[in-house]
């Protein structure tokens, strides 16, 4: 007997109470072990269009719907008795004649169902798909029975309709609706209909109890079992060198990276994999996801190290090599720069210019001598330097280096370069390296990554999104020995946020952006989840904003959300998070905690944090407070820019920050401001 599970089964399970979920899972395990046991009361459902739906008894109230075809048994759905029956009555399983994918098709008997939705709303709108040939739509994977009703779909009922279609058809229709040209997918000759990539995103054969256990234990984590064909291809491929997976927020880049790590660990029984990130908060949360995917105590998990790169560099330098490291922070560095400037500078350059030249050229690229600096190309820097000024600027940097060394301090970039030199004896520590948030790795960090792994097959796997770049200036990866041309994948389906939130967040960004591999890519993604439009609200005073946030969070809690499902984010700590968000939280009398790096366990509390600290995380509901002019973008960051090019880059990073913050929301997004709104919204 072959045993399979459908993603709809997990969706059904999600909706049940905790107690009922436990009963269903236990029954599913027992059924997998011995489906003939009479206690399952396994029998065919009568009077349905789909004759291959059977039912399993869980208790007086709950049923499991099973699809039985030859030697295949597939768990399809679970719910209370009548609802489970209704679900089965409205569906059937078909192999699509054009694409070859097995689909769970929602039965639609009458086009009136679709037309009525529009009439009810009393709007007259042009139909979206009317101009496309039905044969073309069929080839895109639309089930035959839906071709006629599709003719009546307008903007008002588009999302409702797509939600009822198989995912691959819905995604392609969404693209068409957005004005894209959608090519007919290649038909894959598959002997086993379950091997078709589109089938595997909803139906998976589970080989053993462990796989079933993993799929059922974390019903929210559907990604442990069902991947999009593009995700699957990116993670299965063998790469002859560094590979790159890009995609907007929520497109499952981290999920692909985790699966990739697991795949490499399974394939190389002795292999050691490093999974590294920029932010320590994300690294801590990734530990949890890796435990879900691989199991906490498995042999594979023991060979996987998850850490942010700076922590690893510190460990190599201090713990392994016994050397000293004390980081200089930005303020400390700025003081030293001012000191050096006042004693030496004859260049006439501003402190802002010197800081940015140091950060984006000298420190990033590990320039240690005048000879190196003299000929350095300074790509993309707005202010040109003649030879005399360059030398004067270098004198200041030389002095800063001396001052740093006399205080026993160094920058994180210097630490990375020191590690690279120390590792230069050929001892590479890892067999494969996976990098999440690669957009925030600068030249020093990427060179360290390069030095930590030998060059060869599947050496470095990077995932990232240039639209979420918060710390780095753009530069070419080729210049640090990372070439990804021909080994890049772009993910297009957003799994985190609703289409409404996605549209708002994508609207903040330019339609195309240059990726690190050098390619200009469209940022267009689609989401098949639906929800309320984001709420963007301004207030005359901070007190009004606070009152609104209190009421909003109370409503969410009353609706059944847990505190841990909610986050409040802000651009600045004191003026927004401490003075306004904390005020709101103290009135709510609900536990809250600051997002920080050291946590591996997420407390049962509302999260509070800066936009920077929210990177890579997600919550059901997010309030982004304090999005007023002057704060988003933050005036002093822009005014620190020493020329137009730098100002544009700073502006782009500020916009990316708001994009990061708003895309943390899965279901509800509220953006508030006091006075004038941010120019971004
Ligand atoms: N194939 C999938 N099926 C179901 N859910 C998925 C799938 N892939 C990803 N997800 C879910 O989508 C959400 C976003 O995934 P993930 O964090 O990997 O995205 P990301 O691209 O790394 O996002 P960001 O760049 O914003 O951090 C997560 O809740 C994840 O569980």
TrEMBL record:
Q: Where does ATP bind?
A: 247-254
Output the Gene Ontology terms for molecular function.
Answer: 3'-5' DNA helicase activity; ATP binding; ATP hydrolysis activity; DNA binding
Which keywords does this Swiss-Prot/TrEMBL entry list? ATP-binding, Helicase, Hydrolase, Isomerase, Nucleotide-binding
Q: Which reaction does it catalyse?
A: ATP + H2O = ADP + phosphate + H(+); Couples ATP hydrolysis with the unwinding of duplex DNA by translocating in the 3'-5' direction
Q: Can you cite a GO biological process for this protein?
A: recombinational repair
What PROSITE patterns does its record include? UVRD_HELICASE_ATP_BIND
Domain annotation UvrD-like helicase ATP-binding: ranges: 226-505
Look up keyword Transmembrane helix and say if it applies.
Answer: no
Write the Enzyme Commission number(s) for this entry.
Answer: 5.6.2.4
Alphabetized InterPro entries for the sequence: DNA_helicase_UvrD-like_C, DNA_helicase_UvrD/REP, P-loop_NTPase, RelE/ParE_toxin_dom_sf, UvrD-like_ATP-bd
**One Pfam family per UniProt:** UvrD_C
**What is the protein's name according to its record?**
DNA 3'-5' helicase
Q: What is the species listed in this Swiss-Prot or TrEMBL entry?
A: Microvenator marinus
